[in-house]
Amino acid sequence: MWLLDVNITKKIQNLLEERGDDVATLIELGYRRLRNGDVLAKANEFKRVLLSYDYDFIQLTQGIHPGVIVIRIHPCIDEEVIPVFEGFLKSFKLENIPRDKIIVRKTASDQ
Q1: Helix, coil or strand: residue 8
Q2: Angle at CA 38, nearest 5°, toward 19 and 100?
Q3: Which of 37, 49, 72, 110 is 20 to 30 A distant from 104 in Cα terms?
Q4: Maximum CA pair distance of the chain?
Q5: What residue segments make up the domains of the chain, in order of their start?
């Protein structure tokens, strides 16, 4: 179960939904302007893995939470992000996510 930060695009949301994943967005839930600490609180409250481009979540996450995945790909545009994120998703099982943080980056084979 995903919770998408406000900076995650509709194309990435569609990609997850097409896989059959349960996706909620902060925007659709009416939380467009939350501070990062409050975003993490919502992820905990809804028991969803947070997906964001915001690296601040790596420093903020402490204690128990459903998981945080931060995408760190530059340039941060769908044409660059989606192929790498799709590769990540192929090796990733949402139900097996550690209650930790993951950073998705380009590797040499992605370039």
Answers
A1: coil
A2: 55
A3: 37
A4: 39
A5: 2-110
Give Cα 5 distance to the centre of its chain: 7
Give the residue-averaged pLDDT of 92-105.
69
Category of 67 on φ-ψ map: left (φ > 0), alpha (ψ -120 to 50) or beta: left
Tokens representing 69 are 């995945």
**How far is it, in rounded angstroms, from Cα 44 to Cα 24?**
13
Nearest to 73 by CA among 88, 84, 60: 84
In the prediction, which pLDDT does 108 show? Answer: 47
pLDDT digits (tens, 9 = 90+) for 27-65: 999 999 998 889 988 998 999 999 999 988 877 766 656
DSSP states of 19-79 as a string?
A: TT--EEETTTTT-TT--HHHHHHHHHHHT-EEEES-THHHHH--SS-S-EEEE--SS-SHH
